[in-house]
UniProtKB/TrEMBL annotation:
UniProt family annotation: Belongs to the RNA methyltransferase TrmD family.
EC number: 2.1.1.228
Name of protein: tRNA (guanine-N(1)-)-methyltransferase
Key words of the record: Cytoplasm, Methyltransferase, S-adenosyl-L-methionine, Transferase, tRNA processing
Catalysed reaction, written as an equation: guanosine(37) in tRNA + S-adenosyl-L-methionine = N(1)-methylguanosine(37) in tRNA + S-adenosyl-L-homocysteine + H(+)
Gene name linked to the record: trmD
Length: 231
């Protein structure tokens, strides 16, 4: 899977994307993350990438030319146009189901906005779909792009070393995780549920399944509904 990220802050990606599982996945050649600096494609002698909005208003808007030319640089020579995703508050909110779909792509181009936004003609012409990571105000699309890369990369075979455990991880079946404990068995007088120390694997699995269901029903009734529908 190749991610080409069009951004004004490529160094942010280099730092985050070489760490942890994404870094290892890149070393294994399973995932490639290229941060493309939109500013490298500006034709303006002052390397301008933004300008005042037509119609007035506060803030600046990202201009067409640098983004169009960065896009062309990434896609030139390719026989198929990769799927272009604009990380945007106006997009469909990212879910695990969408991540599974995206993980089947070979090559994704992610576009990150900044300032007050991007010129609409970029969206009309280049963008296939807008995806949001959630309803809150952010400074740019960079963190959302890293969130998308993280959740999609984990789904690529070979990226997660413990592939086996993935299947029983509760988010795989859409439920919240059961409570987790580790040593010591009693911490400052606080015990670990007996069942987990019993060694009865069938009972432990049953208890965990009940805990996942109960927690999801209580904390995320929306996910619980989804789960019941999917059963
Ligand atoms: C109603 C709501 C959602 C609170 C809202 C309404 C109006 C504006 C924003 C907002 O944050 N504008 C700033 C902006 N955000 C994002 O890029 C962004 C935000 C959230 C999730 C995202 N997922 O991907 C990208 C995301 C970064 C600078 C360039 C313009 C977009 C938010």
């Amino acid at each position: 899977m190749k991610f080409d990220v069009l951004t004004l802050f490529p160094e942010t990606f280099e730092l985050v994307m070489k760490e942890s599982i994404i870094g290892r996945a890149q070393e294994k050649g399973l995932v490639e993350v290229n941060a493309i600096d939109i500013r490298d494609y500006t034709k303006d002698k002052h390397r301008k990438v933004d300008d005042y909005p037509f119609g007035g208003g506060s803030g600046m808007v990202m201009m067409c030319q640098p983004v169009f030319d960065a896009f062309r640089a990434v896609t030139q020579g390719l026989d198929t146009k990769p799927r272009v995703i604009f990380m945007s508050p106006q997009g469909r909110v990212l879910t695990q189901k969408m991540a599974v779909e995206l993980s089947k792509e070979e090559h994704l181009i992610l576009l990150c906005g900044h300032y007050e936004g991007i010129d609409e003609r970029i969206i009309e012409e280049l963008v296939d779909e807008e995806i949001s990571i959630g309803d809150y105000v952010l400074t740019g699309g960079e963190l959302p792009a890293m969130v998308l890369i993280d959740c999609v990369s984990r789904l690529i075979p070979g990226v997660l070393s413990s592939e086996g455990s993935f299947s029983d991880e509760s988010h795989f079946n859409g439920l919240l995780e059961y409570p987790q404990y580790t040593r010591p068995a009693e911490y400052e007088g606080r015990p670990v549920p007996e069942i987990l120390l019993s060694g009865h694997h069938a009972n432990i699995q049953k208890w965990r399944a009940e805990q996942s269901l109960e927690r999801t029903r209580k904390k995320r009734p929306d996910l619980y509904e989804e789960y019941l529908k999917g059963k």
